[in-house]
């Protein structure tokens, strides 16, 4: 992994640790690989490189500079795990002499599955067939104590995580062929380290080509989950798994949307922003980035004039999902219809969400900003661990979003009979 530049402070909750990823390129990755945890080994036609587009999408294919570690740009750079088709996830449950596993290792696994694979199936409209596997069904005891690895919030890959990965590869290798998997989940015994209420240690090292090698492939895409994200509201059994789809989002190339200030930029509209509390989905931009939308479902509004669109609820399969309004080569607005269905449990004011995506802003620095149609209202939800203010951000029929500096107006017209929402995009 690359060291964090000194100007970059540790993010408040989790650090999306990024490995060495290639220089940004607009070329589609078509390399067919042999499987395994290594970058560039996505099966042909799968992975972030499988993002669907046509020539009409050109102006909307925004990208950031090479200094951006993990960008909102499309297509996603190479090195991450494939996000479409069958994705095999290796799950290893680990414990330590100073934090021996309590109960069965498979009970730890059951905190996250089958909920995580169901979450991805729902969010991806069935395009991500997530297969969690547990070739080792007991706790894997690490040779050092937890304290000796020096794992802290924001800890870099060197040297603690490298040692931990080397040790778990050595422990699992007799029973595991690492070439068979696209990503690794390390489900750490919850009694190792601090409570997630105090410090969230969970972290992902993604696209990390310098990771230790197992069975000839680097363990490049690995998520580590610690403790339990139990907010004390009694909903842990329902919602505690959501840290894993968040961490795996990094493995598929998605950046953190929360910032030093917390979830105020995007609120509960994307699991990369908030993964505590009630269930929520991903932004349509992320679904396009992950290859879960067809070219016909994403419209690029690049030309002057007025154009009408009918958006269908993002959570529903089929139909038009996202209108992208590019501003320059690095940024643009995205517009989508969010309703209370699918993974979107907390939507309390269904409507048209308008947000700005900036591919030149790094993970954790606010690459996405949601516009609030009801500023300073306090929001419409009182659900725990949901950023309330932005919960009523969506625009409803009769409301208009304006960005005069870019000559942009988005009018929300009436709904159609099937629950679709008509909008008009006007560019000067
Ligand atoms: Zn994260």
UniProtKB/TrEMBL annotation:
SUPFAM superfamilies assigned: Metalloproteases ('zincins'), catalytic domain
Signal peptide positions (record): 1-32
Keyword list, A-Z: Hydrolase, Metalloprotease, Protease, Signal
Keyword Signal listed: yes
Listed GO MF terms: metallopeptidase activity
Keyword NAD part of the UniProt annotation: no
Xref: InterPro entries: Peptidase_M6-like_domain
Top-level lineage group: Bacteria
Segments traversing the membrane: none
Protein's UniProt name: M6 family metalloprotease domain-containing protein
Native species: Streptomyces parvulus
